[in-house]
Specification:
The chain has 77 residues and is of the alpha+beta class. It contains two helices and two strands; from the N terminus they run H-E-E-H. A two-stranded antiparallel ribbon has the order 1-2. The longest helix has 21 residues.
Length: 77
């Protein structure tokens, strides 16, 4: 998938999945602690998504949304 197309697709999917996680108050998949979904995603404890099937092990760059789990940026880095 080309860079711009990938970026737009990922951004849309990411935003939808994070909204879903926030609606259900899902905790961090790495540490199990609550995520403050009001924080920006580029802050240490802000929300991001973790690929449950790592790219290094054959996971898809843009996986099914069910294969993405919310995590703190710090925990997922």
């Amino acid at each position: 998938m080309a860079g711009r197309q990938y970026g737009a697709t990922w951004t849309k999917m990411r935003n939808q999945r994070i909204r879903q996680a926030a609606d259900h108050n899902e905790p961090c998949c790495r540490c199990g602690q609550p995520i403050d979904y009001q924080l920006p995603g580029n802050t240490r404890w802000g929300p991001t998504l973790d690929h449950l099937d790592p790219l290094a092990h054959g996971g898809d760059l843009i996986p099914d949304p069910d294969r993405l789990a919310p995590a703190h940026l710090h925990c997922n880095s």
